[in-house]
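Changelog note: in this version the structure field was regenerated for every chain. One regenerated record is shown below for reference.
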Amino acid sequence: MPSQLWVSMAARSGRRRGTGDAGRGPGRHVALLLVTVSSLLSVVLAVVVNVATGGDLPEPVAAYGWLAWPTVAVLTFTGVGLALWQHRLGPGGEPSASPVSPPRDDAVPPGELPVAPRLVGRDVELAAVEELVGAGAQVVVISAAGGTGKSALALAYAHGVREHFPDGQLFVPLNGASAAPTQPQDALIRMLRAVGRDAQERRGTIEELSVRFRSVVADRRLLVLLDDAVDAAQVLPLIPAGAGCLTLVTSRRLIAELPGAVLTLDALPPGQALELLTVTIGADRAAADPSGARRLVEICAGLPLALRIVGARLRARPNWAPSALADRLADESRRLDELRLGDRAIRSTFQSTYDELRDVDRLVFRRAGAHPGVLFGVESAARRCGLDLPLVRAALDRLVDAFLIEAPTPTSYRLHDLLRLFAGEMLDRTETPDDRAACLLRQVEWLRDLAASGRDISDERENILAVLRTCVAEGLIDQAWTLVEAVHPLLTAADDHVYRLQLWRSVAEAVVDDRRTVRALRWISHSHGLAGEVERELTTAREAVSVAERLGDPTELAQTTRRLGEALRAHGRSDEAEGQLLRALRLFQRSHAVEEEIEVRSALGVLYNTLRRPERSIPTLERAAALLPAPETALHGYVVLGLAAGHKLAGHQAEASALTRRAFGIADRLNDEFLRGYCLHERGWLAVEDERHRDAEEDFRTMLEIFLRIRHGAGVGAAYQALGSALVAQGRRDEAAQAFRAAIDEYERLGNGKLAAEAGDSLSALDSPRQT
């Protein structure tokens, strides 16, 4: 505590205090007189004994030597009487309630603080305690989950300010995590004994003992640390009221009813957690295996207790690298078993708090806490629990106060990984297999209802994937499939291909029905294509066609054939692509699937434009445009944009410009980023044709921003390549070279060797004049 902090506290107290001020009264003067008289009598007794045992007296009084032994007897009895009188007065000079109580030395103030562990990563929180006390708080409650380091923080602060509390520091373990918490009466007796008042304090009610304690320490500068409190009722009688006293309270629950300030602790963030682990195992050891150390930090979820346990285990195994222990802890089914050292265990820390909960809170914790996702809302939790919404909301609030669940926002909840594992254990231990399955199925039903309602599912995406993986692991394949089919139609944003890929992959390997398999493979291939991953796109498309042919369904065969044609086109195998797309066109025409025919014609138009054959692309796309139905969709934009590219190749610049503007209008009305990116591509090349290279550069840069944002790899590569060409035309060769290299890197990442080679040719052409 800074010195100015205590000065302000002393000024508020209104008078000077010092050790031993409490208990002064008239009896104190009597005690001082007795001590003085006793000392003088002792000196006289020594002289008389000397005479009685043969010592010589001066000549004038030598005749009275025979009185020595009677005088010894009188002085001895007088000394004994004075001693008994002094003993009855007690240590403070007042009459003692018990004549047999041993004397106390109140000159030594109590110093009961245990050794504080080295505090790492809590500088901000330590400063927060200092600020609260500096602002006048005489009671500071530090609340946090078990294992978070609240006691270490309180002890570190208390040791740092000991000199400001010369009348002593009391440490009282309240054992809130045990089955038998310390009773306030026992704590008061212990505290009174520590400040020198144990002789008479075993009688009285809690209220009487509390009053006595406050009276004794009212004028003292005393620091009291009450560790691991259960609730306000346990703590309130133990708080000294003197202005010179400070009380620190730690608790695994949020105790807001006490007078003073409340500070809550979270788990350590990764940087500070790594610092704590490094201090525990040694800097050299952490530096030798940084990835293993980071994995341990992640596994321990930032909990200081868990980090100290793994650190101690590594110290006991000097030949182990952090990665070795991280590998053992990677198995979630064994993780809580492994996080144990002696009598310290993460599981028992959580268990003690869980055991204190009421029944409904335990049910909500284990069912909602075992939620497969990371964040969840109260509606999802209520459905999993099978309870009414208000009941679950109230239980969640109590669980937040008990630090078993976090509430990062007013509408969302989460558990860190170790508590999530503990909740899963409680679910497995408490619920039957049927109960656990019903819990998951209720959540699947809720997610399906959410999708069917048309509400935004963006906040539930990660939860949906987690639920799907859990369903597959539990063998609930039908339920997983119906959830995928309910969510899939809602994925219409430009960057949804990334999520769509994860969605279909989660069930693809589990389904055994060919009709489901071919549908999953088709959409997986499509998602790879939108990402620009041409090798994976082609491989999955071929697999889908194989399954469709085995199935013998003309509709699925047409869909997968078209998918294969588009994958071959992206792979640069134009002849094969044309053959597959024409085959798909015939199949769709036989089944009168108009929308699918338009999509195939659009794909063929793009292929013919790539081959620089506008005489084939324009009629194909014009027929597609004639088939377009209302209302306007993104497909309208792609058909129009393909026609613009065809007319540009044919030298019809005016038509190309007008069609590009029309496609832009569709993209703007639909707010379709994917379509807008390719409109910019087409307009940029039109600007190059007109030698408006600055305009082209601006369009290509905007295109690049869009495709980077929506993670469309093929678009990113095309934007870099086009940008390089616009920069070459402006004579900015170094910048152009950087753009071409970026295009090459992107195409190589995607596995598109053909386009990577084309970008490489542009880079080589850029370098060739310098070589000559």
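Spot check on this record: The first strand starts at residue 139 and ends at 143. Strands lie at 139-143, 169-173, 223-229, 246-251, 261-264, 340-341, 344-345, 375-376, 406-409, 412-414.
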